[in-house]
Amino acid sequence: MSADEIRGATLGTAPVPLSVLDLVTVGAGSTATEALRTSVEIARSAEARGFHRYWVAEHHSMPGVASSSPAVILGHLAAHTDRIRLGSGGVMLPNHAPLVIAEQFGTLEAMAPGRIDLGLGRAPGTDGATAAALRRSDTLNEGADDFPEQLAELTRFLDDDFPDGHPYGRIHAIPGPVQGTTPGGVQSPHRPPIWLLGSSGFSARLAGLLGLPFAFAHHFSAQNTVPALDLYRQTFRPSAVLDRPYALIGVAALATDEAAEARRQVRAAALNMLRLRMGRPGLFPDPAEVERYEFSSMEEEFVSSWTANVVHGTADEVRSGLDGLQKRTGADELMLTSHAHRGALRLRSYELIADAYGLPTA
């Protein structure tokens, strides 16, 4: 596996490679079909403008987030792009059998050879009841506690290298390496690189010990970003995958033609998150609804705290904010996620940021 699959190229005046994280946001008055069409538009634009990778996040039981099936969406995006890396940001491994994930991403690798990333997280990506339904178990902590063992099992399925005598030694994830060792087989032994995702120190340490690339969720755990990245770098051990640490951070960023519109959209995103935290998830609200909403003092405090961690405004303001964040964290890559009520604004945000950094235009 080449480190070039992990390390992207820095283009234009960007301080590090830029990438996209997509939650397939569904706004009030819109549909999942329209949101998915927007995702295709953004992916094609991101490819043309030189963004390094395009990841889709796994979430469940959230009306405003149509990304419950990352592998399905990635297959669709692969059919509409040619070069940009595509991946999960991430698959929540405790929700799935490792063999299923190995099969899904082996299939994606066969669809788009050399372009697929497998990002893995240990959180459920949803509430406890939904996680129980996904896992067919009421023991929700079991999956998270067993994450290192699940990761090891998934890796062996991807590499097809269970030791002799292992109960799974005669089971093969297909498409996969076993097809290349079967008489007449010409299957490539290549597999998608694994990334570990996290919002605290657990996955940071594990990624470091295993010598894997690490992605940190700065967009919803900003207070833990620097400690987690420091822990990752301190515990990093060189591996066959990486000779030195490589960490990206997910950043909520929204650029608009007018700064006032960015503020309106970000306040709508904050109300959306507030409702989620209160157990009342819904569609991404129309900013006009937010302007009518009467926030309590505690709710307004939450909104202020949330919006403070979103880099937003005009393209120049967003560029300045991203430059400062990269400098503070030392992140090797910035993965941007733009949330807005209308898909056209999401698409426009990435275009404005690309323009601000002088990224390629074709």
Structural summary, described in words:
The protein has an eight-stranded parallel barrel, surrounded by eight helices. The protein has helices at 32-49, 70-79, 98-111, 128-135, 140-145, 147-159, 178-181, 201-210, 225-235, 259-277, 287-292, 297-308, 315-329, 343-356, and strands at 18-22, 53-56, 85-92, 116-121, 194-198, 214-216, 247-255, 311-313, 333-337. The mean pLDDT is 92. The chain starts with 17 loop residues before the first strand and ends in a 6-residue tail after the last helix. Strand 1, helix 1 (32-49) and strand 2 (53-56) form a beta-alpha-beta unit. It has 362 residues and is α/β, with parallel strands linked by helices. Helix 1 packs parallel to helix 14 and helix 8 (201-210) runs parallel beside helix 9 (225-235).
- What is the N-to-C order of secondary-structure elements (H for helix, E for strand)? EHEHEHEHHHHEHEHEHHHEHEH
Query: Please, how many helices?
Result: 14
Count of strand segments = 9
User: What share of residues is helical?
Assistant: 40-55%
Q: Approximately what portion of the residues adopt beta-strand conformation? A: 5-15%
Which radius of gyration do the C-alpha atoms yield?
20 Å
Backbone shape: globular
For the biggest β-sheet, the strand order reads 1-2-3-4-5-6-7-9
What is the mean predicted local confidence, pLDDT? Answer: 92
N-to-C terminal Cα separation, in Å? 28 Å
Quaternary structure classification: single chain
Structural class: alpha/beta
Ranges with pLDDT <50 over ≥5 residues?
A: none
Largest sheet, if any? 8 strands, parallel, barrel
